[in-house]
Amino acid sequence: MTLSASAIQRAGNSPKIILLATVVLCFLISLIEKYIQQYWLYVSFDIGINIILAVSLNLINGYTGQFSLGHAGFMGIGAYTAAVITNQFSTLNPALAAVVFTLALVAGGLLAAVAGLIVGIPTLRLRGDYLAILTLGFGEIVVVVLQNMDAVGGARGYSVAHGWTNFFWAFGIAAVTIYVIVALVHSTYGRGFIAVQDDEIAAAAVGINPVKYKVTAFVIGAFFAGIAGGLYAHSKQYLAPDGFGYMKSIEIVVMVILGGMGNTPGVVLAAILLTLLPEGLRSLQDIEHLPGLSGEFPLSWIGNTRMIIYSLLLVVLMLTRPQGLFRIKK
Amino acid sequence: MTEFLQQLINGLAFGSILALIALGYTMVYGILRFINFAHGDVFMIGAFAGYYLTPKVAAFLPTPSIWSAFVVMIGSMAICAALGILIERFAYRPLRQSPKLAVLITSIGISLFLEYGGQNVFGAAPRPFPKLIPEYSIGTGGLSVSSNQIIVLAVTVALLVVLRFIVLKTKTGMAMRALAFNPEGAALMGVNINVIISFTFGLGSALAAAAGILFAVLYPAVDPLMGIMPGLKAFCAAVLGGIGNLPGAAVGGLIIGTVETLVAAYVSSTYRNAIAFAVLILILLIKPSGIFGKKEIEKV
């Protein structure tokens, strides 16, 4: 008994085992998916996708200290790439579909990573607010280019044939993302990210190449954002270029800041909370005579209220708890 | 050729509005070294102030006239100056010793608050801006210039002259320049830093309000999200001219406005919103200090 208990304990300390267990658990849940209410199922996919986005942005904004405001741009590139690939196929048997889906997701991630490389290179010369504006500009350029690409529907949007995203994909990949990023940052190599964030000049002085770390952070972050985009495409089955603009990027940034920059568990928690928040607001819609709720535009009221809450969260957090809601002081 | 001149005039009119907004960015950056993301939304509030003031002013002044436009513009500039000072006092001042990133994030928060709070207060749908100035069309040989465009250019030039006078010839302006040059040194020489920073925010926000009114005169519709794009483009203009540099911001605004209008006219109008960012990325890659900026060396 004691032997097996200690074996479990040892296994509990091994992140790889936890990862494997999580992925298997996600797979098992995906088998009973049809018994879960559809609405909550799709909310849960959103949670998984937002976890991937927030955790990957946390590598760039949190651990490496680069302020990116264009994460949704990477997501958009991944979403459209994966959707274009899977739309080439009609119905497939499940095994083949899984292979095609994996390849499409990876392709979307890789293309987003290339974009991350291109965006990351200016970090050679830029820091702080300049970089923020540049990444914001990148995100807007992605939206404008997508709006002008007739092959993917332009501003009208693009339908995705397959709804392949399920619990296994959304949370399995979220678990892999968390594992990869945490393992990376805690590796000997990965300590460089934190060194660059703490003091770039000091890091350079002890032989860490800040440029290499910054570009790497962008490439890895963009890769996972691209994959999240692919999952998003195959969950919503409809893509609109506007959905990958400034507002989506801000949403991801708020998750990272709320969770505490460079604090992965906090960021995961914030991603879950901020995905559920608008759903909670949506249920408020059913309550009649809510002050401020005009009968005509309840949907826009939810969108606005969510953004107002985000904006106040940002200001109040910066003024009172700049380390994030869930961060314990180092 | 006529069409080119026509587009050039359109571009200059739009560019002069960007220049006025860019001045606010560059002044704040010069003194506090951070991007005030909320500046574009102060521009939006300026336009809305004009929207609400116009009927009030129309009650005692004949309304499409230069005088009512003047009163509305002064009123809107005063409202936005107060708003800018309030934002600085309550959101940015408590963070003056914090990392730059915290201030940047706060300004994004204020910006979102003004945009979406504005949607709840003013409604999301665009509203037609009332006619402030009688409009004439002056045309020679196929070239048609609206009197509004000339007014926009003239008001911009007048405001630039006033700004230049304030910054170069007054004691407050001297304090602003001293503060931008060396905050500690300025404080030791008896410059009241808080007052000067408030004044800078007020001045920049007043210019943004003037830009908002001019924008609404030129493109007569106001909505709560109207400040996002002009704000971002004006920031690109400020960087193009060399951030922290006042003539640079004005020149950068004119360049961005003109290039954007020309590209929209001759290349593709659907790409117009990407132009400013493309220019920004190019300038940051080639000469990050901008056209008139000086290169700064980072010291430990």
Order of helices and strands of chain A: HHHHHHEHHHHEHHH
What count of helical segments of chain B does DSSP give? 11
How is the main sheet of chain B built?
A: 2 strands, antiparallel
Radius of gyration of chain B: 19 Å
Q: Give me the CATH architecture of chain B, please.
A: Orthogonal Bundle
Q: Structurally, how many domains make up the residues of chain B?
A: 1
- Helical segment tally of chain A? 13
Question: What is the strand content of chain B?
Answer: under 5%
What is the number of strand segments of chain B? 4
Indicate the structural class of chain B.
Answer: mainly alpha
Indicate the structural class of chain A: mainly alpha
Which characteristics define this entry?
heterodimer; A: 330 residues; mainly alpha; two-stranded antiparallel sheet; 13 helices; 72% helix; 1% strand; globular; B: 300 residues; ABC transporter involved in vitamin B12 uptake, BtuC; 11 helices; 4 strands; 4% strand
Lay out the secondary structure.
The complex is a heterodimer of chains A (330) and B (300).
Chain A: H1 2-13, H2 15-31, H3 38-63, H4 71-86, H5 94-120, H6 128-148, E1 158-159, H7 167-186, H8 191-198, H9 200-205, H10 210-236, E2 238-239, H11 246-259, H12 264-284, H13 298-320
Antiparallel strand pairs in A: 1-2
Helix pairs in contact in A: 2-7, 3-7, 3-10, 3-11, 3-12, 4-5, 4-6, 4-10, 5-10, 11-12, 11-13, 12-13
Chain B: H1 2-32, H2 39-58, H3 66-92, H4 100-122, E1 127-128, E2 137-140, E3 143-146, H5 147-169, H6 171-181, H7 183-188, H8 193-218, E4 221-222, H9 228-241, H10 246-266, H11 272-286
Antiparallel strand pairs in B: 1-4, 2-3
